[in-house]
């Protein structure tokens, strides 16, 4: 369980992050979790005087999430990482590496995302 966790919508994300910036919070990082039910949980972590505050945004895997990099430029790295490793659709990033910050063309796409395996039974009636 994460302490000081607030659930917000993707529509609230930029205003909440801007509020953190105004209140002098430091952006620490963001985490992404594939919940296995077609959703991704994206958790943004902030710190002020050793007090963490966290925002969770729950989105469907095919939904877009706005980038916070115009507010906290340092988020560019973790946003590109979540985009590549989990397939999170982050829009309007200050720098978008186009899926090649960590992975090459030969790597498995979205290797941290839960993959659904379909096994076809042959000859079953």
Please describe the topology of this protein.
Layout: E1 5-8, H1 13-22, E2 26-34, E3 39-48, E4 51-60, E5 64-66, H2 75-86, E6 89-91
Parallel strand pairs: 1-4, 5-6
Antiparallel strand pairs: 2-3, 3-4
Describe the structure.
With 125 residues, the protein is an alpha/beta fold. It is built from two helices and six strands, in the order βαββββαβ. It has helices at residues 13-22, 75-86; strands at 5-8, 26-34, 39-48, 51-60, 64-66, 89-91. Helix 2 (75-86) links the parallel strand 5 and strand 6 (89-91).
Summarize the structure.
With 125 residues, the chain is α/β, with parallel strands linked by helices. The protein has one domain: NADH:ubiquinone oxidoreductase Nqo5 subunit (Beta Polymerase, domain 2).
In percent, how helical is the residue content? 10-25%
CATH homologous group name: NADH:ubiquinone oxidoreductase Nqo5 subunit
The CATH class assignment is: Alpha Beta
Return Rg in Å.
17 Å
Number of helices: 2
Number of domains: 1
Question: What is the architecture at the second tier of CATH?
Answer: 2-Layer Sandwich
Unreliable sequence segments: none
Structural class: alpha/beta
Question: How many DSSP-defined strands?
Answer: 6
So what's the overall shape?
Answer: globular
Q: Give average pLDDT, whole number.
A: 87
